Amino acid sequence: MWRGGFRYDWEPTAQNLLTLQGDSYTGDLNQAVTVPLLSPPYSAELRDKVNVSGGNVLGRWNHQFSDNADLALKLYYDRTKRDRVVFAERRDTLIWTSSITSRWVTARTSSLALATTLRLMN
User: Where are the domains of the chain?
Assistant: First the structure.
């Protein structure tokens, strides 16, 4: 199995922080699957080398309006592929998240966070 990844952080201004990170993998797994049969012995074991691969990428932007308010945007994409002895699977996932946070100081520190998430899967 091979696996690798990266991360890059960039702060173009004191109020903005950008991050881009990702991972990737590929390899083979040994798999044994028991399948039913209509005649004796009524089951059989199939052995196969399963090819797996995939990866993901995450982009994130944080913007600080003040000491008490900030905005965060995230975009995440993931791809998974597995070729199994019984079936093959391919999955793509896209997730978009945004949040706005505002904090104020009273007798106790309070905060308000609004978040939205959009998830698309194939």
Answer: 2-121
Q: Are 62 and 11 in contact (CB under 8 A)?
A: no
- Say what the pTM is: 0.73
List of residues 6+ apart from 72 with CB closer than 8 A: 60, 61, 62, 63, 97, 98, 99, 101
Three-class secondary structure of residue 68 per DSSP:
coil
Tokens 């091979």 sit on residue:
2
Q: Quote the CA–CA distance of 67 and 102 in Å, as a whole number.
A: 9
Taking the chain (122 residues) in consecutive chunks of 10 residues, what is each chunk's mean pLDDT? 96 97 94 88 88 96 89 92 81 86 64 61 61
Rg (CA), the chain: 23
